[in-house]
């Protein structure tokens, strides 16, 4: 029993010995890219804020904004349907970060994502003398709010510099379920 208590105290002492300086803040900005399953790639920005206190554990928040559009045409016999989709993705995630070494941390995030996709479809009818003639346009908007998650690593090559690389994902209902998976990469300043 004494050995178990001693081992637990020793392990907790080692974990506490990995603590960082009190009250460190990191603000980073970077690039984010995601792909909507069966649709288009989205590109945008990711902003992260990390608050570290006198512990190996810290708190991190992440906001992403991505947008993109896509065009596709579908022939039906002599007619053509032209589709255009414009998508916007927003997410806010928060979670713990753990400092593994003085230079490397890992983090996990949970939160919410909002996806809005505007779709317009135009039908062109083939007429012998006039070619393709528009028969009208239909427009629809799909919005989805969903649970989102992420994970990644943070590297501090020098004390005031932060480089992060992460994954972000969700499942959105855009006229059916579509997985959205992507990555973030950013650089920040620790102060």
Automatic annotation (TrEMBL):
Q: What is the first-listed, main subcellular location in coarse terms?
A: membrane
Work out whether the entry's keyword set contains Signal: yes
UniProt xrefs under Gene3D superfamilies: 2.40.160.20
Is the Magnesium keyword given for this protein? Answer: no
What keywords does the record list, in alphabetical order? Membrane, Signal, Transmembrane, Transmembrane beta strand
SUPFAM superfamilies given in the database record:
OMPA-like (SSF56925)
- Gene Ontology CC entries for this record: host outer membrane; membrane
Subcellular location(s): the record lists: Membrane
Q: How does this chain sit within the bilayer?
A: Multi-pass membrane protein
Q: Which residues form the signal peptide?
A: 1-22
Tell me what this protein is called. Answer: Ail/Lom family protein
Q: Which organism is it from?
A: Dickeya undicola
């Amino acid at each position: 029993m004494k050995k178990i208590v001693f081992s637990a105290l020793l392990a907790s002492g080692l974990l506490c010995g990995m603590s960082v300086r009190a009250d460190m803040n990191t603000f980073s900005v970077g690039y984010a890219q995601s792909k909507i399953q069966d649709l288009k790639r989205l590109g945008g920005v990711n902003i992260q804020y990390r608050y570290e206190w006198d512990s190996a554990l810290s708190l991190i928040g992440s906001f992403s904004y991505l947008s993109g559009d896509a065009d596709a045409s579908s022939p039906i016999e002599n007619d053509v349907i032209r589709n255009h989709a414009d998508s916007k993705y927003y997410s806010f995630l928060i979670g713990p970060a753990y400092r593994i070494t003085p230079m490397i941390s890992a983090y996990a995030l949970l939160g919410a994502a909002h996806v809005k996709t505007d779709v317009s479809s135009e039908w062109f009818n083939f007429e012998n003398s006039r070619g393709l003639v528009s028969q009208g346009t239909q427009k629809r908007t799909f919005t989805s709010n969903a649970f989102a998650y992420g994970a990644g690593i943070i590297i501090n090559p020098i004390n005031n510099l932060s480089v992060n690389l992460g994954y972000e994902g969700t499942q959105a209902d855009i006229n059916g379920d579509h997985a959205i998976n992507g990555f973030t990469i950013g650089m920040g300043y620790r102060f």
